[in-house]
Amino acid sequence: MRVHILYTGGTLGMIDTPAGLAPGADLTGWLDRLLTGTDLADEVTLSAFDHLIDSSNATPADWAAITADLWAHQQEADGFVVLHGTDTMSYTSSALSFALTDFGKPVVLTGSQYPLGVVGSDATPNVTGALRAVTSGKLDRVAVFFGHKLLAGNRVMKTSSWAFQGFDCPSVPALALTGAPWQWTPAVQTGCGWHDPAPYQRHDVLVLDLAPGITAARLAAALDPLPEAVVLRAFGVGNMPSEEPGLAAVISDTIASGVPLVVASQCPQADVLLGHYEAGHALAQAGAISARDMTIEAVYAKLVFLLCQGLAAEEIAHWMVTDIAGELSS
Ligand code: ASN
């Protein structure tokens, strides 16, 4: 089994600098020592971003660069591991899941909370777990391995800034849990796929949180000038203040201007049901799109993905509620 690793940056390969943690560790030497004497000793190739990043700096251009690197090595390996910072790893894994439905080989992202040079770091279990996942013969999609769990790439969220169990899927079970042997969950649906997608580039998608007391004037100001699409993080099943003067009109004017507006929930575990309450009725009436049980990361990456395909607002509305890569329960 051959594995290709792409190193993009993140805490895993960072060292202390006067300005805080920054890339600079000897990843190649560390990997060599990790794999010497194992069944993967001579089976791993490595490529790296020219400019290693803290994943807080990642943009859709980085999602495109990762996708391009994976395709460039697609024939050379049986499985692929992307070493990535944890901060935006679930955005990248969601994005890759839409772009790689045709890839046909497992891709697992991982990183760590502590750098590889710290005694007790989670770098070793996370990287070896990711390697084990992509060589298992049981995975055919984009996933994240972290804290002894293998998690679907477009269902996962970073749930802790410090815990070794820093990631979870609030709406679906883990794909596998480590152990001897690993415990695998029976495979579930993976969506209809997307053939030959246009590469990622940046689009103007606004993610907006509602909070008690928000006014129509504040919401209107945040939407001026209009972005290409909006993700409105509303309350519960997709509710907003229905008694606040002018608020519903700002939403309906935005949608009437041809801007897709997706309503997601502030609850990590949610199923958005627009109109279930009177407080969500205006959103349903205005033609807002429900995020259903998608994570905020999957919603954002999917909107950027669909905008990159040059789709009109009605087509975006259709695809947002259609399962492309297993991101959405049908
Ligand atoms: N700031 C880091 C990053 O996302 C956090 C980490 O990797 N643990 O690149």
TrEMBL record:
Pfam families: Asparaginase, Asparaginase_C. The active site is at T11 (o-isoaspartyl threonine intermediate), T86. InterPro entries: Asp/glu_Ase-like_sf, Asparaginase/glutaminase-like, Asparaginase/glutaminase_AS2, Asparaginase_C, L-asparaginase_C, L-asparaginase_I, L-asparaginase_N, L-asparaginase_N_sf. Residues 2-178 form the L-asparaginase N-terminal domain. GO terms for molecular function: asparaginase activity. Residues 205-320 form the Asparaginase/glutaminase C-terminal domain. PANTHER family: 60 KDA LYSOPHOSPHOLIPASE (PTHR11707:SF28), L-ASPARAGINASE (PTHR11707). This is Asparaginase.
